[in-house]
Amino acid sequence: MHTRESERNDSLSTVLDTEVLLVDRHPTAWERIRLRRAVGWRTHDPAAVEESVDGAVFGVCAEVGGQAVGMVRVVGDGRTCFYVHEVIVHPEYQGMGVGRRLMDRVMEHVAENACRNAFVALIAEEGKEGFYEPFGFLRLPCDGHGSGMERYWER
Ligand SMILES: CC(C)(COP(=O)(O)OP(=O)(O)OC[C@H]1O[C@@H](n2cnc3c(N)ncnc32)[C@H](O)[C@@H]1OP(=O)(O)O)[C@@H](O)C(=O)NCCC(=O)NCCS
Questions:
Q1: Which of 52, 64, 73, 152 has its CA 20 to 30 A from that of 25?
Q2: H or E, element range at 2
Q3: How many domains, the chain?
Q4: Which mean pLDDT values do the consecutive 10-residue runs of the chain (155 residues) have?
């Protein structure tokens, strides 16, 4: 399966002129791996990615000709806690409003499902904070809140 999808994805640049459609769905394991690679992020063991696909509470893909050129996953409990994870637009489609459309859809999902005082969080890449501020996210640390923290599991 991976080989066939990999071959399909090599033709990405040939569909640049096609309309970008938003589809509410989880990105497949291979789409996640390919998009993470495309923006230079570290990748995971494909078997682990396969196992994790259904763990998200919400997903949106930006598709061109049925191929994901952008994605967002939201993990959490679907009511009180939402973590916006893996916001990626393929470099060939960046700067065209695709990321904003993906985040608009994520925030619609949150507005429809979050309870009062639900926690909605993400960690911005360095220099990407301004992309998220229009959606109401605050830079940390701020009054009453310390820094976000993270750890990558290395074993
Ligand atoms: C960050 C990313 C998702 C933005 O997607 P995009 O499709 O290129 O962004 P858009 O074209 O939809 O831009 C939407 C708005 O955000 C602004 N914006 C985009 N990147 C920005 C940045 N780094 N800082 C501030 N504003 C930014 C755009 O200027 C645009 O503003 P406008 O609505 O006033 O015109 C995309 O560049 C990407 O995938 N980067 C690599 C992976 C990554 O870093 N993901 C984010 C992890 S936190």
A1: 152
A2: helix 2-10
A3: 1
A4: 44 59 97 97 96 95 96 98 98 97 98 98 97 98 96 90
| CA 128, 132, 134, 136 torsion-angle sign | negative
> From the CB of 110, is ligand 1 less than 6 Å away?
no
Closest residue by Cα to residue 99 from 14, 8, 20: 20
Residue 142 covered by a domain: no
Q: Say how many Å lie between the CA of residue 77 and the centre of ligand 1.
A: 26
Interval 39-51: pLDDT, tens = 999 999 999 999 9
Asked if residue 70 is part of any domain, the answer here is: yes
CATH number of the domain bearing residue 78: 3.40.630.30
Q: How far is CA 83 from the centre of its chain?
A: 10
Q: What is the CA(124)–ligand 1 centre distance, in A?
A: 11
Ligand 1 nearest-atom number relative to CA 89: 39
Per-residue confidence (pLDDT) for residue 12, from 0 to 100 = 52
In a domain, 155, yes or no: no
Q: Domain for residue 66, yes or no?
A: yes
